[in-house]
């Protein structure tokens, strides 16, 4: 009798826990789902409050087409965003791997000082040095260019990239290197052929953070990209949402927000364990 | 060591020179990183300090004016209002984030069915950018085409559609709700790593000794999570002190400039009014605040002394 009751109450507790979990999950997912679904409404319906969130008068991609008619359209800013993000990934990985290898495997003058200086840039908010960055970019002829923005983003990612990669290289046993050196491998083949396959989880992690960081960054892009043809998606969408292109089309905003969110969500779902790894590495530091 | 000792003197020297040169190559590997940090961080940092001592318009010549910009800051009530608002926002949003993230962390820390799904759902908004999230919520909060006001009206909770963004209180709490939605999952994961590092036998021993869940939480969980809590706290505080995107995109600093944050004010001075020197002086103040926060962080995150 007593046993049956305790089993019963455990069952109820489990049920209550899962009910809480599902309601909470729905609360967190709702705004994302709401936007993605609403974006597929026809333009007339998208102007009305999203109740219910799904299209009731037929499925349509009209909002994406409308979005494409504002300013320089949807494609140009999407391409700009993609270009900036991919280049940030490529250069964060190259610079991060080289520096991580250098800091992990060599002894040279000022090594510790350089490492500390690079890591401590994380303490300084980049928001406070945007004006001089703008002037430096102008000086070297990179102002209002996507390349200039990439340089800034790679620099902002550096402390994390280098910290991650140095730890990754530190974890590779020295015996492996010594064996390869016996076989006549020089520094470059050592790095490319022997080390890279061993540190690739670290590379995926810094690539993921570089992509998300560059894709989502707002303030620097807002300040540094003054020419409309160089706008990234967040800047273009904010211009649209502020009414810069006339009356605000909320259907187009939903479509734009969907385009901005979906790549992040897909990358996260595919590479979740690398993301959590990066967070942990940062947290345990 | 022993192998070196047994080799002949010339061979040893050659080996050391070779090793020395090999070590120097390390400098080449780190050179690109050092160059980037120098050009896009160290130099701009020095320039901020230098510019803060100048009257520096966007066009035309700049002139040295000593500490005049800093003197002007002392009289700049709107900056102090922005700083006060930033502090108020930071306190409220940090409390709100922890109030949501801590229960979530306790909830997902215990393995059960569907934990993976719950964890992923709670975390999803964290990978969406602040700009995307702000644009999304600016739609949800819109009085005519949004979700909240029309839904409340249709459910009969309000007599007419209320514009949530028109007055300070509802606008401010809407931002808090949006930020908690976006950030709680992130804080939750950090807190979870702290919870998982607590040895389970410690909890069990306390349970056998008859400690209730609240007593266990106070005597074991909280003290052992000190470093994790400090990290989550500092990340939340630093992020909030630098808040900009959500206030720019959703509220444009309104209603009546009541939600201008420190970064927003610097942005306005530097890139709307183009008072670059004054903006640099304001930036120096922000920088000092953030570095002070980082030093507090280092102190809070120090390793426990002795055997702990």
From TrEMBL, chain A:
Transmembrane parts of this sequence: 12-34, 82-101, 113-134, 146-169, 190-215, 250-271
Pfam families referenced in this protein's UniProt entry, alphabetically: BPD_transp_1
Gene3D superfamilies xref list: MetI-like
Bilayer topology annotation: Multi-pass membrane protein
GO cellular component, one term: plasma membrane
Keyword list, A-Z: Cell membrane, Membrane, Transmembrane, Transmembrane helix, Transport
Family: Belongs to the binding-protein-dependent transport system permease family.
PANTHER family per record: INNER MEMBRANE ABC TRANSPORTER PERMEASE PROTEIN YCJP (PTHR32243:SF18), MALTOSE TRANSPORT SYSTEM PERMEASE-RELATED (PTHR32243)
Protein name, per record: Carbohydrate ABC transporter permease
Annotated source species: Mesorhizobium helmanticense
Automatic annotation (TrEMBL), chain B:
Keyword Transport: yes
Listed GO CC annotations: plasma membrane
GO biological process: transmembrane transport
Signal peptide range: none
Membrane topology field: Multi-pass membrane protein
Compartment list: Cell membrane
Family: Belongs to the binding-protein-dependent transport system permease family.
PANTHER family: ABC TRANSPORTER PERMEASE PROTEIN, DIACETYLCHITOBIOSE UPTAKE SYSTEM PERMEASE PROTEIN NGCF
Name of the protein this chain belongs to: Sugar ABC transporter permease
Native organism: Mesorhizobium helmanticense
């Amino acid at each position: 009798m007593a046993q049956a009751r305790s089993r019963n109450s455990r069952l109820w507790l489990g049920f209550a826990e899962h009910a809480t979990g599902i309601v909470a999950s729905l609360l967190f997912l709702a705004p994302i789902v709401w936007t993605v679904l609403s974006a597929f409404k026809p333009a007339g319906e998208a102007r009305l409050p999203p109740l219910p969130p799904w299209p009731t008068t037929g499925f349509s991609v009209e909002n994406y087409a409308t979005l494409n008619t504002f300013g320089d359209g949807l494609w140009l800013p999407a391409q700009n965003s993609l270009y900036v993000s991919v280049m940030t990934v490529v250069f964060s990985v190259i610079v991060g791997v080289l520096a991580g290898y250098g800091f992990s495997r060599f002894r040279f003058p000022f090594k510790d000082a350089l490492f500390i200086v690079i890591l401590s840039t994380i303490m300084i908010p980049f928001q406070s040095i945007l004006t001089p960055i703008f002037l430096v970019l102008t000086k070297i002829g990179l102002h209002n260019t996507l390349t200039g923005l990439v340089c800034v983003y790679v620099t902002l990612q550096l402390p994390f990239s280098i910290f991650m990669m140095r730890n990754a290289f530190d974890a590779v046993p020295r015996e492996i290197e010594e064996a390869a050196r016996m076989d006549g491998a020089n520094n470059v083949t050592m790095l490319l052929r022997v080390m890279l396959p061993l540190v690739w989880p670290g590379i995926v992690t810094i690539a993921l953070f570089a992509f998300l960081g560059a894709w989502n960054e707002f303030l620097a892009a807002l300040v540094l990209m003054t020419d409309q043809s160089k706008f990234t998606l967040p800047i273009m969408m904010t211009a649209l949402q502020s009414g810069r292109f006339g009356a605000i089309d909320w259907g187009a905003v939903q479509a734009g927000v969907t385009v901005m969110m979906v790549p992040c969500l897909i990358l996260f779902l595919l590479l979740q364990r690398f993301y959590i790894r990066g967070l942990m590495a940062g947290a345990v530091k | 060591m022993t192998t070196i000792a047994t080799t002949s003197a010339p061979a040893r020297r050659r080996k050391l020179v070779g090793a020395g040169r090999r070590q120097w190559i390390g400098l080449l590997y780190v050179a690109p990183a050092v160059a980037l940090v120098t050009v896009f961080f160290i130099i701009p940092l020095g320039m901020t300090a230098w510019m803060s001592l100048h009257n520096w318009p966007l066009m035309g010549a700049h002139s040295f004016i000593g500490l005049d910009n800093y003197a002007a800051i002392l009289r700049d009530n709107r900056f102090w209002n922005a700083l006060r608002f930033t502090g108020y926002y930071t306190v409220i949003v940090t409390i709100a984030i922890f109030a949501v993230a801590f229960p979530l962390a306790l909830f997902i820390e215990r393995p059960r069915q569907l934990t993976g799904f719950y964890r992923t759902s709670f975390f999803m908004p964290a990978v969406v950018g602040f700009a995307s999230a702000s644009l999304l919520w600016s739609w949800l909060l819109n009085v005519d085409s949004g979700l909240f006001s029309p839904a409340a009206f249709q459910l009969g909770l309000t007599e007419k559609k209320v514009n949530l963004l028109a007055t300070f209180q509802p606008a401010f709490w809407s931002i808090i709700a949006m930020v908690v939605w976006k950030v709680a999952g992130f804080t939750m994961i950090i807190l979870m790593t702290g919870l998982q590092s607590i040895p389970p036998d410690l909890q069990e021993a306390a349970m056998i000794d008859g400690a209730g869940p609240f007593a266990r939480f106070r005597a074991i969980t909280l003290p052992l999570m000190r470093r994790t809590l400090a990290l989550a706290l500092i990340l939340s505080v630093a992020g909030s002190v630098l808040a900009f995107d959500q206030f720019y995109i959703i509220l444009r600093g309104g209603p009546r400039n009541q939600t201008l944050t420190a970064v927003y004010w610097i942005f306005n001075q530097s890139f709307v009014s183009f008072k670059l020197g004054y903006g640099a002086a304001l930036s120096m103040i922000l920088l000092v605040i953030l570095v002070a926060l980082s030093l507090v962080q280092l102190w809070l995150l120090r390793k426990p002394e002795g055997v702990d």
